[in-house]
Design a protein that fits this description.
This protein has about 170 residues and is an all-alpha fold. Helix content is about 65%, strand content about 0%. Helix 1 runs parallel beside helix 3 and helix 2 runs antiparallel to helix 3.
């Protein structure tokens, strides 16, 4: 955890820098590393909260708050602890955002593949996680049912599809 968020950024770049026609393999290892880093930050965040709370309680017991009303006796009195808390909380949020962006970009490409054709090419199928394959199957069933005569609109909307995965910046 030397550089906060580096692993999550690497995971995001993996999909963002990839050409739209390429579907990179799901990187389970990096996803797990990012989740582990989030858990580590959570443990450090909890420890920082506990330490700050102890300082507040000790200050109250020692009377070092003096004439400060009880409602103002807060963690804000210890800026070093507040800084630690903010850094770890921000790191958790950043890692979560990057994980969600990675997942969202992959799902958008999976949906675009369904609009381009009914079946998945084997190389793409082997690059997907189990959850992504389940998503594709569910999305396929939903779209097929919607386009079915009688139950849906009765037209194949994929015939005129011009959907493409948006190009990488």
């Amino acid at each position: 955890m030397a550089v906060f968020g580096k692993t999550a950024l690497e995971l995001y770049k993996e999909i963002a820098m990839c050409p739209p026609e390429v579907f990179p393999p799901y990187n389970d290892e990096l996803v797990r590393l990012v989740q582990k880093e989030i858990q580590e930050h959570k443990a450090l965040l909890d420890a920082a909260f506990m330490a700050a709370d102890e300082k507040v309680q000790k200050s109250e017991q020692a009377g070092t708050f003096g004439s400060v009303p009880a409602s103002n006796r807060k963690i804000d009195s210890f800026p070093e602890d507040v800084s630690t808390i903010v850094v770890h909380h921000s790191s958790i949020l950043r890692n979560k955002r990057l994980l969600l962006a990675y997942s969202q970009m992959r799902l958008e490409r999976i949906k675009a593949l369904r609009w381009q054709g009914r079946s998945l090419p084997e190389d793409v199928k082997s690059s997907m996680s189990t959850a992504e394959l389940q998503f594709f199957k569910g999305y396929d069933r939903l779209l097929t049912k919607y386009m079915r005569p009688g139950e849906g609109i009765g037209q194949d909307l994929t015939v005129v599809c011009c959907c493409r995965v948006t190009p990488c910046p």
